[in-house]
Known about the structure:
The chain is mainly β. The protein has strands spanning 2-6, 9-12, 17-24, 32-38, 45-50, 56-58, 68-73, 78-83, 92-100, 102-105, 109-114. The radius of gyration is 13 Å and the shape is globular.
Amino acid sequence: VQLQASGGGLVQAGGSLRLSCEASGIIVSASIMSWFRQAPGKQRELVAFIDISGKGTTNSRDFVRGRFTISRDNDKNTVSLQMDSLRPEDTAVYYCRAFQRQEYWGQGTLVTVSS
């Protein structure tokens, strides 16, 4: 199983980025797919997940509510995270995770938001 995350980069506060996680060796529509992030010196935290039915759930905490949206493209076997109104505190490495009987992690993509 491989999870290839992409789309990270440098963006100014208020801007947007779209992260993608391309999966191989696993079918995203048959897995619980999640995005996590880890900022320097902090614990990894859940950003959003999408279940097998296709329902996306964003962490209800204020730090992402209303700004981030998770989606899935079954044809491309890809999960995306649309991030809008980015803030400097969103700076982190973002990881894609798949869960199907066991968990699998991608290598992460760095998002840097400048003020």
